[in-house]
Amino acid sequence: MTIALATPDVKTWSWQGFSIRYQAMGTTGTPVLCIHGFGASSDHWRQNLPALADHHRAYGIDLLGFGLSDKPTPGQPLAYTFETWGQQILDFCREVIGQPAYLVANSIGCIVAMQAAVDGSEWVKGIVMLNCSIRLLHERRRAEIPWHQRLSTPLVQTILGYPPVGRFFFAQIARRNVIRNLLGQAYHRPEAITDELIEAILAPALTPGAADVFLAFVRYSQGPLPEDLLPQLQCPVWIIWGQDDPWEPVALGRRFTTYAAVRAMEELPGVGHCPQDEAPELVNPLVLGWLAAAEA
Predict the structure, then answer these.
(1) What's residue 217's pLDDT?
(2) Do 90 and 84 meet the contact criterion of CB atoms below 8 Å apart?
(3) The pTM of the whole model exceeds 0.70
(4) Which fold has domain 9-138+222-295?
(5) Sign of dihedral through CA atoms 121, 119, 11, 176?
């Protein structure tokens, strides 16, 4: 007999006139909201929401401009910044969840979570960060990267700002084989790169407006760095880091443990940039254990 696994309810929420897609599971317990990284969506939490929902009201959200949420033209009226996304998270907690929540985030989603906690501390009970984006291409990080990248990054960003060039570049990336190759860099476990995962990333990339959002973000070298937000946090922070992440080096992530808000950091050997998807059997128990202790 085949037992059907529970799946999240997929819903939409109207935020500032735009349609936002989210997923929800669970009916009891303190709420947990999962926030994806760049180029991903709430589907990146498909192996985590069912486990979280056993003990919590669990949500995953598509940030404005990503997944199957609306993708308005950048700056019309909203800019794609961490302040914008942080406000989206706070409003979701107010209007949809209806009470303060724990935020579980990956990559740039960690910056979004911290921005939300800084701007509306009363709505964020704690943050679990998975391979937080260091933002190595930020203008204030230029001195930390090799000289050739310091010279080439502004040039490439300027070239991509020309719409025909930028959209052509995006079209070359939004292909199954290219996405598979990029995931092969980010993930340490090749067996985790499934057709389901590739489709979950490709499908939103083919929706109207996706190219303009992508180009707006790759040219976004301003805004907060993690070390700007961490000292301002009033909630506890727990960190998970895949040790084999080629994009966000674990050695830089260890610096975060010096901040007062950080309660613990767990490193996962043989895991890359997206631990929640690559090693859910390791991530889910860690997250549930931390949240249970915090609630107790």
Answers:
(1) 85
(2) no
(3) yes
(4) Rossmann fold (3.40.50)
(5) negative
